[in-house]
C-alpha cells in the first residue's frame, strides 16, 4: 500500500469456502499491518499489548518500511485499533467480526475514528466474518469493497442485498472458492486465483460491470 491510499474492505463467507485464502492473497499488497486474529492463523508476529505500546512509543510504527504485528485478545483490540489510527499509513485487520463485535450493536467508540476519520490517516481497514450479519452496519456503509463467499442463513443473504442486488439469490449456491466481488458500483464473480468475470448488471441491479484485472492481482 502506498501513502495516500485508503481502503475499507469486508470479506464474508462460511468456513471452508475461500475467505481465508482470499484474505491471505489480498494482504500481500500491504507492507505495514496491525492484525487482530483470535485464532493466530494469519501469518504475523504476535505480541502483547504492552509490546505494541513500546513499538508505538519508540516511533517504529511511523518509520519502519515494513512490519506485520498481531494481537489476539479482545482486551488488546481497542488498543491496537487506536495505535493503528494514530500511526496511519498502514492496514488494520479484524479477523472474525462475530468475535469482535456484538450482533446488532453500533461500532464501539474506539473504532469510530478509524472508520470515519481514517482516510485522513491513510488507514486501510479489512474486516472478515463468517456471517455477514456480524458486520456492524456502519462498516458496510463505509466500505468501498465487499467480497462474499457462500452465505446460507436468510439474515446473512438479505444483509448482502445493498451490495449485490438480486444476485443474493445465488449466494447459497456458490461453489467452494467462488465469490462475488462488489467494487466501484460493479460486481464480478470468480474463483480465488482465477480471472474475474463481470456478472449480469440487470440481475445485480447495479451499473454496467466492467472487466477487472485477474484475481491474483488483488
What would you say this structure looks like, in words?
With 218 residues, the protein is α/β, with parallel strands linked by helices. It has a single domain (8-217), classed as Rossmann fold (3-Layer(aba) Sandwich). Helix content is 30%, strand content 22%. It is built from 10 helices and 10 strands. It has helices spanning 19-26, 49-58, 60-63, 77-87, 97-100, 109-117, 137-142, 154-159, 161-164, 201-204, and strands spanning 8-12, 32-36, 45-46, 67-71, 90-94, 123-129, 145-148, 178-183, 186-191, 197-198. It has a 10-stranded mixed beta sheet. Strand 8 and strand 9 form a beta hairpin. Helix 2 (49-58) runs parallel beside helix 4 and helix 4 (77-87) runs parallel beside helix 6 (109-117). The longest helix is centred in the middle third of the chain and has 11 residues, at 77-87. The chain is globular and about 50 Å long.
Blueprint of the fold:
Elements: E1 8-12, H1 19-26, E2 32-36, E3 45-46, H2 49-58, H3 60-63, E4 67-71, H4 77-87, E5 90-94, H5 97-100, H6 109-117, E6 123-129, H7 137-142, E7 145-148, H8 154-159, H9 161-164, E8 178-183, E9 186-191, E10 197-198, H10 201-204
Parallel strand pairs: 1-6, 1-7, 2-4, 2-5, 3-4, 5-6
Antiparallel strand pairs: 7-8, 8-9, 9-10
Helix pairs in contact: 2-4, 4-6
Strand content: 15-25%
Give the mean pLDDT: 88
Low-confidence parts = 201-217
Q: How is the main sheet built?
A: 10 strands, mixed
Number of helices: 10
> Which class do the helix and strand fractions yield?
alpha/beta
Radius of gyration: 17 Å
Record the strand order, biggest sheet.
3-4-2-5-6-1-7-8-9-10
Shape estimate: globular
Named CATH topology: Rossmann fold
The CATH class is identified as Alpha Beta
CATH architecture: 3-Layer(aba) Sandwich
User: What is the number of beta strands?
Assistant: 10
Q: First CA to last CA: what distance?
A: 12 Å
Give the CATH H-level superfamily: P-loop containing nucleotide triphosphate hydrolases
The structural domain count equals 1
Amino acid at each position: 500500500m502506498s501513502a495516500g491510499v485508503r481502503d475499507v474492505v469486508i470479506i464474508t463467507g462460511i468456513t471452508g469456502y475461500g475467505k481465508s485464502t482470499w484474505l491471505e492473497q489480498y494482504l500481500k499488497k500491504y507492507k505495514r499491518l496491525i492484525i487482530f486474529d483470535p485464532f493466530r492463523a494469519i501469518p504475523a508476529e504476535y505480541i502483547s499489548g504492552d509490546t505494541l505500546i513500546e513499538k508505538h512509543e519508540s516511533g517504529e510504527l511511523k518509520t519502519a518500511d515494513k512490519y506485520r504485528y498481531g494481537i489476539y485478545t479482545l482486551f488488546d483490540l481497542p488498543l491496537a485499533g487506536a495505535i493503528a489510527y494514530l500511526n496511519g499509513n498502514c492496514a488494520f485487520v479484524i479477523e472474525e467480526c462475530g468475535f469482535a463485535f456484538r450482533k446488532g450493536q453500533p461500532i464501539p467508540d474506539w473504532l469510530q475514528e478509524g472508520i470515519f476519520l481514517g482516510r485522513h490517516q491513510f488507514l486501510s481497514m479489512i474486516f472478515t466474518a463468517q456471517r455477514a450479519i456480524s458486520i456492524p452496519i456502519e462498516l458496510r456503509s463505509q466500505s468501498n469493497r465487499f467480497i462474499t463467499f457462500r452465505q446460507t442463513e436468510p439474515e446473512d443473504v438479505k444483509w448482502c442485498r445493498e451490495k449485490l442486488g438480486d444476485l443474493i439469490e445465488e449466494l447459497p449456491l456458490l461453489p467452494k472458492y467462488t465469490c462475488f466481488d462488489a467494487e466501484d458500483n460493479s460486481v464480478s464473480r470468480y474463483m480465488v486465483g482465477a480471472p474475474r468475470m463481470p456478472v449480469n448488471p440487470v440481475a445485480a441491479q447495479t451499473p454496467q460491470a466492467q472487466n477487472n484485472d485477474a484475481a491474483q492481482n488483488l
